[in-house]
Fold this protein.
Amino acid sequence: MPITVVIRYIIDPFQREAFAQYARNWGPIIPKCGGKLVGYFLPYEGTNNVALGLISFDSLAAYETYRARLKASPEGAANFRFAQERRLILSEERTFLETVPLP
């Protein structure tokens, strides 16, 4: 069953550009680790501290494999450090969504 993981970030609105760089950094890393990056989204209008990341997988098992590869990835570790050092992400939560088949 295909799934999409929606990561909801609460970001420091004064670190918007740093978060954009963090998101761009994931561009080559996520596919290398087995995810299908749908995209990252920054606030445009309204609430200024909520950003989203969407990554799709063929199954929950594929997601688990991706997480293991991501943990072992030097590039992934470097990007996590980038975010931690700049304190641009205040919190995050994950929601797993099932794809609704279309006719």
User: Anything to note?
Assistant: Residues 3-98 form a domain with the Alpha-Beta Plaits fold (CATH 3.30.70.100). The chain has one domain: 3-98. The longest helix spans residues 16-33.
